[in-house]
Write a structure and sequence with these properties.
GO molecular function: chitin binding; endochitinase activity
CATH topology of the largest domain: TIM Barrel
Family: Belongs to the glycosyl hydrolase 18 family. Chitinase class II subfamily.
Largest sheet: 9 strands, antiparallel
Radius of gyration: 29 Å
Number of strands: 30
EC number: 3.2.1.14
Number of domains: 3
Pfam families: CBM_4_9, fn3, Glyco_hydro_18
Strand content: 25-35%
CATH superfamily of the largest domain: Glycosidases
CATH architecture of the largest domain: Alpha-Beta Barrel
Shape: elongated
Number of helices: 9
Keywords: Carbohydrate metabolism, Glycosidase, Hydrolase, Polysaccharide degradation, Signal
Structural class: alpha+beta
């Protein structure tokens, strides 16, 4: 038997329905999101790493929706900065679809709001409410997916609340003030600045007192023309068609003294080669005195540790049994002095394929400094090459910021090299030869990642390079024995042709967000600090590049010609030159590599 609903029960149901629906919007309320239905493409929206696109099916309303696809460590975050009134209540809503979809708002001045759902194959409405702080004038609304998941969809995004006046849909809004401004690579006349990319910004202005603002289009800038030993304060503002944001918090910088310790006595374009001084390796032994004058930097391969963790580095000439034509130690030292008298630099290279070095303790660090110093002193060398490979460098779990490393093997290596640099002074030559896995792969992956599971060696050289960039003479990444690596065009590039060297070098000279995090940008190196590393012959390593392709890469990077499909972010005629493995293999190949270098640069 069915009972009739009483008057009181009906009233209660009506009240419940009212509360579930929420209070009606006030007369002055407005939807402040610009292009929330994506009918005008991505106008008004900024998607991380180029992950966003407009879809025409499926859609919730109208004819378009947002489709954003996570890639690597990027969760496909699409955001918009909206002008709001202080001390006011707003309701954020969107229709979404996907395995994991998040909707939220940051910069509210109170408690930031976020909500998420799992809704594969069906549209679901997400809503959340927040109140702005007493001084809040803008918030950033966003949607994103999750790492390793398929694309998610969003449509009909709204932010309903008090209209601050003239800023409703269709009205351009200035971006929020940039955050995370940091300075690095400070020299006597320049500094590198970087900051977190600001949603909705199309450009930025860098301010310092007494100078016109510097306009840039990326979240980094190289400021030049500074005075040595001088304190400066920098701020940055974000710009779009609606105007300019407030300035960021200031960062203080003091330039170093005069001089140019990073490039002691090198020619404008230098040829770097490794000399098999302690072994033959199938290419035959080359005596120091017989190294041609083409080579400007000669790296002695290798100084190796007595054990992986000892830090005790030893170097000795190739045994007579393996190298019948090896010179005596006295002849070797005399030949080094002759090379130096001719303007060449001779370094001890530590590591190599078989020389695993892990400075996991301060005792190992101190032994490293002492033993490397003995080698430099005994042979009268000009400096040090770091060629740590294999498992020498890896990042501990939780060590996620290359700007402030905590892993002992990283921290101790940085400390050891700084100690050696201080001991030998401004003419000390410091070079590094990491593999792409330890440097450019850091654009996608860094260490074990925020959730663990990645190779902890990914990008592990980045904190070392960054901490030592003011002392670094040359970085010559090994563009060989490498898997395919993603470039700044978000395409994978494979070794063996000009394209690989162009893309990999462009990353070093442009800078890049580490693991896709735009708040942690690895700043660009100076072009005179960078050389391209290649194998001299097909016997020397995988990824041999023909002279014609080498020249194409040099043309593109120094002249912006012969670039092929990859478009560089600049032109760098001051690019230092080339490195090869090795001098011995180049002789084996009839000196093809060095002769091509000399012909290209007029040596």
């Amino acid at each position: 038997m069915r009972r009739a609903t009483s008057f009181l029960t009906a009233a209660a149901l009506a009240v419940a329905a009212f509360l579930a629906a929420g209070p009606p919007a006030a007369a002055a309320d407005a939807d402040l999101v610009r292009n929330g239905g994506f009918e005008s493409g991505l106008d008004g929206w900024s998607c991380s790493g180029g992950t966003g696109a407009v879809a025409t099916t499926p859609v919730h309303g109208g004819s378009s929706a947002l489709r954003a696809t996570p890639a690597g460590q990027d969760n496909a975050r699409c955001s918009q900065t909206v002008t709001v009134k202080p001390d006011a209540t707003y309701t954020l809503g969107a229709w979404v679809q996907g395995a994991y979809v998040y909707l939220g708002a940051t910069g509210t001045g109170t408690t930031d709001a976020a909500v998420w759902t799992q809704s594969p194959g069906a549209w679901k409405q997400l809503t959340t409410t927040f109140r702005t702080g007493p001084s809040t004038t803008s918030v950033t609304v966003y949607t994103h997916g999750w790492y390793g998941q398929p694309a998610h969809l969003a449509d009909d995004v709204t932010l309903v609340g008090p209209d601050p006046g003239g800023t409703g849909p269709g009205q351009p809004q200035p971006p929020a003030a940039p955050t995370g401004l940091t300075a690095s690579a400070t020299s006597s006349t320049s500094v590198a600045l970087s900051w977190a990319a600001t949603a909705g910004a199309t450009s930025y202005k860098v301010y310092r007192e007494g100078a016109a603002p510097l306009a840039v289009t990326t979240a980094s800038a190289a400021v030049t023309g500074l005075t040595a030993s001088t304190a400066y304060a920098f701020q940055v503002a974000a710009v779009n068609a609606a105007g300019e944001s407030p300035k960021s918090a200031a960062v203080q910088v003091t330039t170093s003294g005069g001089g140019n310790p990073g490039n002691p006595g090198l020619p404008a374009h230098a040829l770097v080669g490794y000399l098999h001084a302690s072994f033959a390796n199938g290419a035959g032994y080359v005596r120091m005195a017989d190294v041609p004058a083409s080579w400007d930097v000669i790296n002695l391969a290798f100084g190796e540790p007595t054990s992986v963790t000892s830090g005790d580095i030893r170097f000795q000439l190739c045994p007579v049994a393996e190298c019948p034509n090896v010179e005596s130690p006295a002849e070797f030292k005399a030949a080094i002095k002759a090379k130096q008298a001719a303007g060449k630099k001779v370094l001890i290279s530590i590591g190599g394929q078989n020389g695993q070095v892990q400075l996991s303790t301060t005792a190992a660090r101190d032994t490293f400094v002492s033993s490397v110093g003995k080698i430099i002193d005994e042979y009268g060398l000009d400096g040090l090459d770091i060629d740590f490979e294999g498992h020498s460098l890896s990042l501990a779990t939780g060590d996620t910021d290359f700007r402030a490393p905590t892993t002992p093997v990283i921290v101790n290596l940085i400390s050891a090299v700084k100690t050696l640099k201080a001991r030998y002074g401004p003419n000390f030559v410091l070079t590094m030869a990491p593999e792409t896995f330890f440097v450019q792969l850091g654009y996608q992956y860094y260490g074990s990642g925020p959730w663990g599971g990645q190779d902890p060696r990914a990008g592990a050289y980045l904190p070392v390079i960054h901490a030592l960039r003011d002392d670094l003479t040359l970085l010559h990444v090994q563009d060989y024995n490498s898997g395919s690596i993603m470039g700044l065009d978000n395409q994978y590039h494979s070794m063996g042709g000009a394209d690989f060297h162009i893309a990999m070098t462009d990353m070093l000279l442009t800078g890049f967000p580490v693991a896709g995090n735009t708040a942690r940008v690895f700043p660009a190196l100076r072009p005179e600090q960078v050389a391209i590393g290649l194998p001299a012959t097909t016997n020397a390593g995988n990824g041999h590049t023909s002279p014609a392709e080498v020249n194409k890469a040099l043309d593109c990077l120094t002249k912006k010609t012969n670039c092929g499909s990859y478009q560089t972010h600049g032109t760098w005629p001051a690019l230092r030159g080339l490195m090869t493995w090795s001098i011995n293999w180049d002789r084996f190949g009839g000196w093809e590599f060095s002769r091509n270098f000399d012909a290209y640069f007029g040596g």
